[in-house]
Amino acid sequence: MRKTDKKIPTHEYCEDGSDAVNSCPGWRKFVDLGFRLARLIYSPPSRIPRDTWRNFSILLRWLRERARFSGDRDSHLVINLGSGRGGEGFSILARDKDVQCLCMDLKIDGGADVVADIHQVPIADSVASLVVLQAVLEHVPDPERVLSEAYRILMDGGVIYVEIPFMQGYHADPEDYRRLTGPGLKMALEKSGFEVVTHGPTGGPGAGLMAVVRAFLLGFFRKGILRHIATPVVRWATLPLLMVDMAYGHRKNQVVAPGFYAMGVKSHNSLHDSLTGNLQP
């Protein structure tokens, strides 16, 4: 994930007025590129992220339309909670010159712009147009509190985008608490006050099956050198299962989907009513 080159004026949005943005020296970008290449070799793709990339393209189009209608610079403010520098597809927003992306995470070395607990977001009320939570809710002790904080920092008519795994093995970061179906994710957002505009799977049955097979095979290896050797071998060996999704598409079967996404809108206003249709796939 490439970090945006723009300097985010964090002090304009943080409640304490501090500037918590981390600097990123030029040499660090080359080191980061090396780590990403090594990670690709060690961990090949686990799904075909066409839905995620499509969703972020839709969100970018929506942000542009919102800014055009409102004429407000804050209409481009995107806050990413708990995903370091962002997950798959987030670079579509981060690379856009008109979008201000602010990434927040609890990890000091996670590459986020602001280090903070997302159960208590140090951001003023009603400042963001879009809040992103990718593969985060399964790791937090109190997801209702996190969604409540997302609702608080969103402007009226703002959008929340959430992804959560379903057919995926236990992965503590630092802990792993839950899985949700598509309807379960929709219900969680609605309980927090959002109107869910659209929701669906983040991949096909091939990706879901591959996740289960990988977890099963790697379960024979305990932590140690053998585990590290077996991991890339198993991951590359099971990669052909993604051909199922390429051949048949994923919407025919959501029973073993690798995960689900949902887009929700905060409250109603005239701007919301005129733009909500742009969020439909």
Automatic annotation (TrEMBL):
Occurrences of domain Methyltransferase type (ranges): 114-162
Q: Which InterPro entries match?
A: Methyltransf_11 (IPR013216), SAM-dependent_MTases_sf (IPR029063)
Pfam families found in the cross-reference section: Methyltransf_11 (PF08241)
One function term, GO molecular function aspect: S-adenosylmethionine-dependent methyltransferase activity
Tell me which CDD domains the record gives. Answer: AdoMet_MTases
Q: What is this protein called?
A: Methyltransferase type 11 domain-containing protein
Q: Which organism is it from?
A: Candidatus Wallbacteria bacterium HGW-Wallbacteria-1
